[in-house]
Amino acid sequence: MMPLPSFDDVLAAAARIAPHAHVTPVLRSRALDALAGCELHFKAEPLQRAGAFKFRGACNAVWALTEAQARHGVVTHSSGNHGAALALASRTRGIACHVVVPEGAVASKLAAIAGYGAVLHRCASTIAERERACAQLQRDTGATLVHPYADARVIAGQGTAALELLNETGPLDALVAPVGGGGLVSGCAIAAARLAPGCRVHAAEPAGADDTARSLAAGERRVDFVPDTICDGLRGSLGEPNFRLLQAHGVEVTVVDDEATVAAMRLLWQRLKLLVEPSSAIALAAVLARRDRFAGQRVGVVLSGGNVDLDALPWSPA
Amino acid sequence: MMPLPSFDDVLAAAARIAPHAHVTPVLRSRALDALAGCELHFKAEPLQRAGAFKFRGACNAVWALTEAQARHGVVTHSSGNHGAALALASRTRGIACHVVVPEGAVASKLAAIAGYGAVLHRCASTIAERERACAQLQRDTGATLVHPYADARVIAGQGTAALELLNETGPLDALVAPVGGGGLVSGCAIAAARLAPGCRVHAAEPAGADDTARSLAAGERRVDFVPDTICDGLRGSLGEPNFRLLQAHGVEVTVVDDEATVAAMRLLWQRLKLLVEPSSAIALAAVLARRDRFAGQRVGVVLSGGNVDLDALPWSPA
Question: How many CB pairs under 8 A join A and B?
């Protein structure tokens, strides 16, 4: 099994990405506080480079490569944000980047990946097909695989989002982040455990891809499902190291349906003036769905990304 | 004629609003810099309280009232952002606020005004009707008129946006802001003249409400027009003190059609992840329309507000 990253790895990641990544602002809204009945501190990762927290993990992975590794570039599979992040991170180091993209990915995300200079390789949308295509590219090019979430360097990098948030807000009662493969929430759990020991970590998961909730309930990974959710960034299945970290840190999962996520997305656009994607808005939806659990508390919410296809908004004009 | 505000008035406004207003961030985008061929520094007023720079001027006016004046509250007419700003500013001081709103105003903006506790008074959309309704309310209630832009306290307050921007960026070669009644751009011109004497100030104006361009060309106010533009915040006519300030500071006007404004709005949403309204996006559209004028320069762009009606977006889904 892969060794799990530690808090020291998160600190090392923070130092490694500092020359390249933004320290994103923490936003507040009195109106949303009133609505939620608690004090919300939003970590604004849509303002991260390439528009999502994914740049943190990708950048850490790229700059952790040895010179010999770096010469052969990197490869990954991604429905969007990780691909764009790895493409941009590779550009910061001047190395090649190959991205395997599944059929049906969001057009604006593919354009971003190509725009950052990566080579796109299309494949069928099954996980088996993506992994096969990645393995073939590794063999052909000698590139290093940077998995979107089941990778210790990536997890440590994502944890820097919580590191920055807690450094700015001080101790929080709870921290909420979306879960797809689990890179973000597992990294954040590592940071929170050290910086705010009493802080509960919550994962917000779409009802149409609730493998994390089922896995934690069963005590073993349950990744046999066909995702059906508007949250295109959360359709992946929970990674193995991510599962172990969520178990170890007692992360709670709240399952949210797409309707609540879309309503939360509108609220965030209207109130924070921040373009968040559905896969981010789900974190606020989880808080609003469980007002009792968070009442009166200081709650950190990681808004993970803002890469929205403006031609396919999930609501009808009035 | 109304005495014009000075740089000292802008400084006094900054001190007066500091306990209530946000110091908004300055955002950058490498992609937009590349597209524009210059270095863009975006002052992010959608992140201001009530979602627009208007809170600055309204807050300065409300807190400049004497106790005796404040007891009778304030009154204004506004198609939206100024009304919401004055309502919220009044709430910070605990005084009454009356807002005369014209037929056809954006629904989400009216909801915001009411949500901040102001009393709405509807009237026909002509300027004469609005002014008549305001005058009647002043007589009935003793409230002080806080005009949306032809008011020295309001102009000085709006100037704090440029004060903060220039304090953060240092001297700029140019500063671009939208112009409707001229409160923002005239206040910014006052601040820029002192803090960055070589800095040219540009006003971006919709082709369907180009009274500022025509007034400056004619050397006298030309406010006889029926506005026809998507920029609902820029449909007012240039104020008299605003006209004098724009003349005095040699402000240049760039006229922009709505199509270019909508394209710029999409770019800002996609690249800055900031929900800007058309009346803000026009400032970037002006820069893109005159690439030669700004080539290689350091340019400040005031993104004035983010109050968009999400049910009435100005583009068709793909």
Answer: 54
